[in-house]
Amino acid sequence: xxxxxxxxxxxxxxxxxxxxxxxxxxxxxxxxxxxxxxxxxxxxxxxxxxxxxxxxxxxxxxxxxxxxxxxxxxxxxxxxxxxxxxxxxxxxxxxxxxxxxxxxxxxxxxxxxxxxxxxxxxxxxxxxxxxxxxxxxxxxxxxxxx
Length: 146
Known about the structure:
The chain is mainly alpha-helical. The protein has one domain (21-145). Helices cover 58% and strands 0% of the residues. It has seven helices and no strands. α2 (47-55) runs antiparallel to α5 (89-101) and α6 (106-116) runs parallel beside α7. The chain is globular and about 45 Å long.
């Protein structure tokens, strides 16, 4: 069985309105079951850690909860709301602005473009959310549809 490429975008939010949180949940769930594609961390240092920090969540406690309880997404959000120290409208708005405003370094953009057949001239966006989407789709296609 092939491992799963996460394709929930960092630009997606659930009922709490927190961008990237659905993707973090999906990756952590897949990682806990050893089903996450090897190119992805179950809980990395980029958007994953940014989201954890913004919400004031204990990383180890969150991963333990996911591993032991295998929560649905709504159960996960309820746990976040109950256990995060800064799950406030202001913290969520600041986090979402940071996610939407993040721009990859030129080197990272070049790597993503090389793997997706894009160039600075052919691709109109530069934000990390959309570049990561392109990268995910290319990895998914290479694994599952080629």
